[in-house]
Amino acid sequence: MLTYLVRRALTLLPILLLMSMIVFALIRMVPGDTIDVMYGSEGMDEVRRAALASELGLDQPIVVQYVRWLWRAMRGDLGHSYRAGMPVLQLIGQRLPATLLLAFAALFLSLLIALPLGLIAAVKRNSGADIGAMIFAILGISMPNFWSGILLVLVFAIWLGWLPSIGYVSPFKDFFAALRHLILPAVTLGWSLAGTTTRLSRSSLLEELGKDYVRTARGKGLPERAVLLTHALRNALIPTVTMVGLQLGFLIGGAVVVETVFAWPGVGLLVVDSIFARDYPVVQGIVLVIAVLVVLINLLVDVIYTVLDPRIRLG
Amino acid sequence: MKSQGIRILVLLLVASWVIAACTPPPAPAAPTQPAAQAPATAAPKAAAPTGPKAGGTLTFAMKEDVTSLDPLKAIQYGDIRLNILVAQQLVAPDRTGKFVGVLAESWETSADGKTWTFKLRPNVKFHNGQVVTADDVKWIFDRILDEKAGCAMRSTYAGIKLQAEVLDPSTIRFTIQSGMGPFLSYLSLLNRTAIIHRDSYDAEGKVTKIIGTGPFMMDEVKPGQSYTLVKNPNYWKAGEPLLDRVVLKVITDPVVRLNALRTGEVDMAEDLPMSDVKKLLANPDPNFTVQIYYINSGERLVMNHTRPPFKDKNARMAVQYAFDRNQYNEAIFFGLGQVHNQPFTPDNVWRLDVPMVMPDLKKARDYFKASGLPEGTPVKFLLMANQKDRGEVIQAMLSQVGFKVEFDIVDSAAWNSKGQALDYDLLLGTMTGIFDPDRPYGYLTKASGGNWLVGGYDSPKMNELLAAGRAEVDVAKRKQIYKQVVELVQEDAATIYVLGLPWVEAWRNTVKDYRPGTSPALMMMDASDGLNKTWIDK
Amino acid sequence: MNADTADTAITSVLLFERPPRRGWSLGVQLWRNPLARIGMLISAVVVLAAVFGPALAPYDPVAINLAERFQPPGRDHLMGADHLGRDILTRVLYGARISLQVGVVSVALGTVVGLILGALAGYLGGRADTIIMAVMDAIYAFPAILLALVLVAVFKPGLVTVMTAIAIVRIPIFARTVRGSVLVEREKEYVEAARAIGQRNILLFAKHILPNILAPLIVVTTTYFATAIVVEASLSFLGLGVPPPAASWGTMLNDGRKFMENAPHTVIFPGIAISLTVLGFNLLGDGLRDVLDPRLKTLQ
């Protein structure tokens, strides 16, 4: 297993290189650069533009810029944000905890909803419970996050006043405050994730329940619950775990809508802000960091497979 | 069974329809022009007064992030919000418009206006404890004039041939060859001519922490999230500030800002959704106060003069007569904007008596015919995403005349880049912090770096007028000159100044003694405004 | 088993071994299945709205009428009027067309490309598989916003650009799905048999493997068709959606967000439209899957 993991980790390197080149090129293909964003709104003279370009290193040919950046990146220096002057890694480090907290909370909630619902739906196929469960789950995916988010804020933060509407508090600083701030964004996100996972667990469970070994177990006289929980569910979890892994990978870089609605200082918002601000070093740095995290998550998912099903051997 | 599912669905549908239908319609708005003088306020009765208390943290919801921490470069709105709390300038206009000293105690001018000698306020300390000397001031101006530094005011000061000379540790002398009229205004621009300590700059010329003289000092920086400031214990005004900490929180969505204010998660907020502001002015919320004020600022509709169709004056006149400012104001600002044809408030000294061109659909159509353009001529409207509504309203107006407006919606970087390349037919511009007529009208010539912001307009007569306005010092004479400028703008349909923006600030009723600056575009706050005397009653 | 079969595990969920039933018996089967029936009804309504909506719409979707702004649902405006006085019912009907277009085109693009890539990866295996999957991983980890922005910048902002952006982002998921099913099918006996008698690869693929992987593809397709509509709404939230005057439901939802409290009807109806459409197509997909999987017949 170890060699397999190492091999998988090594495939990371060419991917990262490719991605960094693509990002480097793409972000410069979009019209407008940092100077336009930061200083351009009132008109600019040539001298000033030249000075700013030189300071930001934008006056060098692209290849030179890329090589310089790559050289530094390989030694762990991802450069500094054009805007705040802060080292990119430090900037990402400021945002990552909030993103990870939200991602895990949302996934946890989604599983909390999805697994029982999927179970009920599969066991009571085509009944009212099945349809009800499916509708509830699908409602989650059918509402854009900014809509359900604001709705939840209106109800729980403004009208009822039970929960705060914005912000992030580190659980290490104040656990209960962190929880209170976490609930609404996690529910918003989690409900939208739950839809897909519900359908998937329902399908996989149905699949498993149709298999021979289940008939055998039933034939042996095992109680229905044992059949379900110890046999079918465990196997049905594998595709669910993969989906969760995919969702986590997406959440690391992509929860920008929820982050905006809840002023949640996450990586998603950083990505979008930096792209709009043409903050090239930050964009380049973040894409790499996200890629690394995504690959690591996939690796973790593979390891979890072996726990769920000992027959699976990696490599 | 399955019919259950269908029943549930139908119930939901009907329920929502009923809820939606039962919502009472909002009271139809009669378009009003809010009083220019007194800002419109919505505040409940004052509680029993308690005295100012020291201490406490104030959280302020900003609408835009800080883009650059270097005050000499920074021109964006978010930058200004930060700068006014930590840095200060030599002079600034007070509430009556008279210039008072901030870091300067007094000054004298030579008769020809070319020599200005400033005496610095004694014993003002930077946040690092060092005293402000004339050397520090000269260092700043040297940096501004340095071509490699990329400072925002370089071309302005170089244009008036500014030179700075240290006479003694507390006296600095400036010599200029022109621009005497607006000179003090230039010095008042807080975020471009702030006097900060040279150690704010690291070896590479970047600023990661502003070492200024303001009432608050920078503490924690979390770009895109929040900026935490702490009280400056050495502030040169005794007894100020009262607050211990100020946290500037970045919340870009106006609905989220309003909600955070309602729940009390932030103490102050700016720029709330207009429909809510209107509602709150009529029915104040018991917990917070909303205030609108009007300062010299404006939105303008810009036509591109360098290419057809708007190269042709007839086409431009068609637009000028088709455009209905009041309707625009009503649609976008719920009537809270101040319709105008010059970007100055009605009570401002630079607001001149030039009658506004009123919409006239027949004239518009006549001009359109005169231009010979075919019905349905496409015009490209360059917009940023948050200007979409404005675009749709203007599209409706112009389609009545025969133009077919097509949208080119891009993000702000692309907007700047395409705009500078004059790759548009129409665009919407905003200008704030207008302290002198040269600032808005100065764009109206090719020589200006901001000429693209008025569509590349250039005319010999305008150039003459602008040069005269810049050279003249006497206010009455300048007013005459700029009156002709505004008339020419309307005659030529150079650009259309639409309305003065309503600036909205709101604060919880526990926040006391907040004094909004006379220019909440905040570029020129003097030291008596803002959060200096604010305290929290909790 | 190795980790690759974990991929197939997802798709084996949706997989079956015998070729699906075809023809009108499929339609009848669908109707009998309660989930599918609801799905079919709703989807039919949406499609009809898209096709005939503009003809039935009472007003002009872009006509601004400030005097009637925010009118709640009533006789003049069955669904009320929005913040510029435009009739919401009309805009919802026109929006059906836009949203369906977004869904169809983005899914079609994503499906076709994903199908090709995934099939190649699964069928050819080895080096081709590794390379293709690595590229898929790279695209997956790529911020979709940047992609969308670049596309919008390089080509004109418009419906097509938005759909292409959404499609590209979907491709890795489709590709993975297809690859998984192909991997499983590839090992089956009938494929070996076909190869033994010398059938050419492409033919083999088209005649044997393709029909068997159709089912999971259908389900994933219907899911992502629906969610493409939601993704477009998120893009418009960020300022990148379908440009005016075209108004997708997502755009309407976003525009009405500021007025949610004071004039909820501006967001309720587009919201319902989106939810119903997503619901309908997803249920249809689930129903299809249920019907097409014969193994389920043996249950309870």
Tell me the Rg of chain C in angstroms. 22 Å
What oligomeric state do the depicted chains represent? Answer: heterotrimer
Distance between the termini of chain C: 30 Å
What is the correct CATH architecture of the largest domain in chain A? Orthogonal Bundle
Major sheet attributes of chain A: none
Q: Strand share of the residues of chain C? A: under 5%
How much helix is in the residues of chain A? Answer: over 70%
Uncertain runs of chain C: 1-6, 12-20, 295-300
CATH fourth-tier homologous superfamily of the largest domain in chain A: MetI-like
| Number of E-type strands of chain A | 0
In angstroms, what separates the terminal alpha carbons of chain A? 6 Å
Low-confidence regions of chain A: none
**Succession of helices and strands of chain C:** HHHHHHHHHHH
Greatest contact pair? A-C, 74 and 67 residues
Indicate how many domains the architecture of chain A comprises.
2
Q: Note the overall shape of chain C.
A: elongated
Count helical runs of chain A. Answer: 14
Overall 3D form of chain A:
globular
Binned strand content of chain A: under 5%
